[in-house]
Amino acid sequence: MAEHDHHPEDADPEDADPEDDDGEESEKERLNREFDQLLTELRVALPGVQVLLAFLLTAPFADGFDRIDDDGRRVFLVAVVFAASASILLISPTVHHRLRFRQGAKEQMVLTGNVIALAGLGALGLAIACATYVLGDSAFPDTQARLLGPGALLLALVVWFIVPLGFRRTRPASSRKAEVKPDLF
Question: In angstroms, rounded to a whole number, what is the distance separating the alpha carbons of residues 12 and 114?
Answer without folding.
Answer: 17
